[in-house]
Amino acid sequence: MGKDYYKILGISKSASVDETKKAYRKMALKYHPDKNKEAGSEAKFKEIAEAYDVLSDSKKKDLYDKFGKDGLAGGASSSGSGAAFHYHFHGDEYDVNRGFEAEMSPEDIFEMFFGGAFSNSTTNRRRTHFHFRQNYGQPQEEPSLLHQLLHILPILVILVGGLLVQFLSNEPYYSLNRDNNYIIQRFTRDLQVPYYVKQDFERNYREKIPEVENNVEKEYITMLRNRCYQEKSNPYKNILKGETLLWTAKIRGDASLWKRAQEMELVYCKKLEELYH
């Protein structure tokens, strides 16, 4: 299985979401490179973050429990619904001039591209059968461009419609920023991170709130880390006012002003540090 994510966080397989989160915060604080200067602390911190990313996500955790780390890279088994296509050839030869024509229903095409995500009990198929026409010694006329377009038009309509449905179904439950769609402000129960949802959120996603808030906190922490890194990488370019104060403090030799300017610049690093405590 490779790395044992449960051992890395020091939890059991039956640990709850809250227990996993608490273990992660404890370990992350212990091995954070800014706090722990020992050799290997940064690598350990990355392991902890990697373990939490998997075990805090129900789908990733399920894959990891079943297939180990390799299951995360390969996804579900290729023998699943919509993953394997078995081609049955009726006859050993086919016309080399025209190749083969597949007799496929719209449901077959839809199933091929989207797997079992949109299928129902009447259209769920795991196999697509291709039938080859045999033509021996008969001249064949090339179909016109219009004929070809009309032939594939129903397939294009199905594909575009399926993509549209998939896009709408994948619309996020929340946003870290307020906009015209996400107007209701909420705060996560554990870290009190602010986020915004649609008006129907409480009614439609009540049972998913713990999972949603877990994702909110993960996204928020990732954002703080990235911005903190940018602040440390560009200490004189982040905040115009802070940059002005730095130069003023340097010219005057004012230590207190210098400290104030530094604190203004590392605002995201400060938020991240407060979050770990």
UniProtKB/TrEMBL annotation:
GO terms for cellular component: endoplasmic reticulum membrane. It is found in: Endoplasmic reticulum membrane. One of its GO terms (molecular function) is Hsp70 protein binding. It comes from Meloidogyne graminicola. This is J domain-containing protein. It is a single-pass membrane protein. The lineage of its organism: Eukaryota, Metazoa, Ecdysozoa, Nematoda, Chromadorea. Keywords: Endoplasmic reticulum, Membrane, Transmembrane, Transmembrane helix. Residues 4-68 form the J domain. Signal peptide: none annotated. PANTHER family: AT29763P-RELATED. SUPFAM superfamilies: Chaperone J-domain (SSF46565). One of its GO terms (biological process) is cellular response to misfolded protein. Its main location: endoplasmic reticulum.
